[in-house]
Amino acid sequence: MRKILIALLCLIPLAAVAQQVQLKGLFGSSAMLEIDGEQRLLRAGQKSPEGVRLLETTTHYARISVNGKVQKLTLDAPIASNYSRSERAEVRLTPDSRGHYSTSAWVNGRRVPMMVDTGATSIAFNYPTARRLGLNLDRARPIQVSTANGVTQAYRLTLDTVTIGGIKLHNVEATVQGSDFPQITLLGNSFLSRVDMEQQRGVLILRARD
């Protein structure tokens, strides 16, 4: 009986569990992933030897599954580390040459580049960006804000959804300046205060709270 049991165990494949997955590139319906240091080119539906299945790809992201847990990786937030243990959506941002953290966000379903600004009270758009995103300023509340150029007219409104990587928040406060300032949309505390933030070796990590 013992010999039979040993023989049966030898026939059962031991599935590896990936500890770190990184998106390296998107190529149509395929994605290049680095899994625990090994590069794997997978087509949608394929599963790597480490147990990572590529569910789908678009021009902006790859959706993967490990042990039944699904996460979306973008080229802005390509890393899922300690993936098998993580249950919360996570985004990792690396700084640019000036130390700024930037990412792509989806506001009410439309894409917009943003820069993290912990000194900004809310997400802040300039007027041209707000128009491009189709934000309805007719229902926005006019306010006065102080900037480096003095006091200026702005509008306060609530965004239906803001999505960064796998993190999606509803009813996020934002302001729209009545000019072309700021040049890049600021990701302020109306979003940042609703996620957990951590820095590891210069990498800024945003984690969903639920």
Which SSEs are present, and which pair or pack?
Elements lengths: L1 H10 L8 E8 L2 E6 L2 E6 L8 E6 L3 E6 L2 E6 L4 E3 L8 E4 L8 E6 L2 E7 L6 E3 L1 H6 L8 E7 L2 E15 L2 E11 L7 E3 L1 H4 L3 E5 L2 E5 L3
Parallel strand pairs: 10-15, 11-14
Antiparallel strand pairs: 1-2, 1-7, 2-3, 4-5, 5-6, 8-17, 9-10, 9-13, 12-13, 13-14, 16-17
Describe this protein with a few key phrases:
210 residues, mainly beta, SH3 type barrels, Cathepsin D, subunit A, domain 1, 7-stranded mixed beta sheet, 4-stranded antiparallel beta sheet, 17 strands, 10% helix, 51% strand, elongated, disordered N terminus
**Radius of gyration, rounded?**
21 Å
Q: What would you give as the CATH superfamily of the largest domain? A: Acid Proteases
- CATH topology group of the largest domain: Cathepsin D, subunit A, domain 1
Task: Determine the fraction of residues in helical runs and give it as a percent range.
Answer: under 10%
Topology as a string of helices (H) and strands (E):
HEEEEEEEEEEEHEEEEHEE
CATH architecture of the largest domain: Beta Barrel
How would the global form be characterised? elongated
- Can you count the helices? 3
Distance from first to last alpha carbon: 49 Å
Structural class: mainly beta
Domain count, please report it: 2
Got a strand count?
17
Mean pLDDT: 83
User: Strand percentage, roughly?
Assistant: over 45%
Low-confidence stretches: 1-15, 82-86
| Biggest sheet layout | 7 strands, mixed
**Quick one: CATH class of the largest domain?**
Mainly Beta
Task: Report on this structure.
The chain is mainly beta. It has two domains: 2-86, SH3 type barrels, CATH 2.30.30.830; 102-207, Acid Proteases (Cathepsin D, subunit A, domain 1), CATH 2.40.70. 10% of the residues lie in helices and 51% in strands. The chain contains three helices and 17 strands. It has helices at residues 2-11, 127-132, 189-192; strands at residues 20-27, 30-35, 38-43, 52-57, 61-66, 69-74, 79-81, 90-93, 102-107, 110-116, 123-125, 141-147, 150-164, 167-177, 185-187, 196-200, 203-207. Strands 9, 10, 11, 12, 13, 14 and 15 form a seven-stranded mixed beta sheet that branches. Strand 16 and strand 17 form a beta hairpin. The longest helix is centred in the N-terminal third of the chain and has 10 residues, at 2-11. Mean pLDDT is 83; it is low at 1-15 and 82-86.
